[in-house]
Amino acid sequence: MEAEKIIETKDLTKKFGDFAAVNKISFDVKKGEIFGFLGANGAGKSTAMKMLTGLLTPTSGDAQVAGLNLYTQQEEIKKVIGYMSQKFSLYDDLSLQENIRFFGGIYGLPPKVLQERGDQMIDRLKLTDVKNKLLREVPLGWKQKIAFSVATLHQPKIVFLDEPTGGVDPITRRQFWEMIYEASDNGTTVFVTTHYMDEAEYCDRISIMVQGRIEGYGSTKELKSEFKSQNMDEVFIKLARGENYKLKS
């Protein structure tokens, strides 16, 4: 039986004046999978994600997120997703514990549930000794892990991660992906943008954006086979050169 589709788009477009930042993209994401949204900086990844999270209204096209309409149910969408931006979405002038209380309140978690999940999160990350420190005093790698944990505090159906591993060392990147695997194993769909081609290998399926369009779509195995390439860097280079191929499934 085919997995349930939790995100579906058809010709989704976002224009700023005459410039199409996202140009008629069509794809789907299956429930529980890790979906990679790849491309160079400026390819349109973040703009597409902002539409899917209800932060930007599309210019045209159709899309559903968690069964909700992207045009008419943006506020409902925000309640069932988690979002981690490139800047981690946390407040440096609040402590870890204050950030948890603040975002848990935004997500509408009851006080008792918020307390339990916040304590579990701090224990899991082994951050008991720094829970009352201002976040600006916490190293970047830990901020990243905290931001992801806060974004999933309310157990969303989908978590959107916008360039989550930018600027951190390879070991921290790997640890962060272990957290993504754990979230996926627990039933959360993970939608992640990145410009690191090696991270494509960590995803169940991927799309590759080039100048606002999706030019590659499928599993890394399928794309490497189609382009007769040994790695995803080679696939991306061929796509960027205009060797246009789009896998349909």
Commentary on this structure:
Residues 7-236 form the ABC transporter domain. One of its GO terms (molecular function) is ATP hydrolysis activity. InterPro entries: AAA+_ATPase, ABC_transporter-like_ATP-bd, P-loop_NTPase. It is a single chain. The chain is α/β, with parallel strands linked by helices and 249 residues long. It has two domains: 1-80 and 157-166 and 177-249, P-loop containing nucleotide triphosphate hydrolases (Rossmann fold, 3-Layer(aba) Sandwich), CATH 3.40.50.300; 89-155, no CATH class. Helix content is 33%, strand content 26%. It contains eight helices and ten strands. It has helices spanning 45-52, 74-79, 96-106, 111-124, 140-151, 170-185, 220-226, 232-240; strands spanning 5-16, 19-30, 34-39, 60-65, 68-69, 81-84, 158-162, 189-194, 205-210, 213-218. The strands form two sheets. A six-stranded mixed sheet has the order 6-7-8-3-9-10, sandwiched between helices. Strands 2-1-4-5 form a four-stranded antiparallel sheet. β9 (205-210) and β10 form a beta hairpin. The model has no long low-confidence stretch (mean pLDDT 90).
Percentage of β-strand residues: 25-35%
N-to-C series of helices and strands: EEEHEEHEHHHEHEEEHH
Q: Enumerate the spans where pLDDT stays under 50 for 5 or more consecutive residues.
A: none
- The CATH class designation of the largest domain is Alpha Beta
Number of helical elements:
8
Largest sheet: 6 strands, mixed
Kindly identify the CATH topology of the largest domain: Rossmann fold
Give the structural class.
alpha/beta
Give the CATH architecture of the largest domain: 3-Layer(aba) Sandwich
Tally of domains: 2
Number of E-type strands: 10
Q: How are strands sequenced across the largest beta sheet?
A: 6-7-8-3-9-10
CATH superfamily of the largest domain: P-loop containing nucleotide triphosphate hydrolases
Helix content: 25-40%
Overall form = globular
Question: Could you give the distance between the termini?
Answer: 15 Å
InterPro entries: AAA+_ATPase, ABC_transporter-like_ATP-bd, P-loop_NTPase
GO molecular function: ATP binding; ATP hydrolysis activity
Pfam family, one: ABC_tran
Organism: Flammeovirga agarivorans
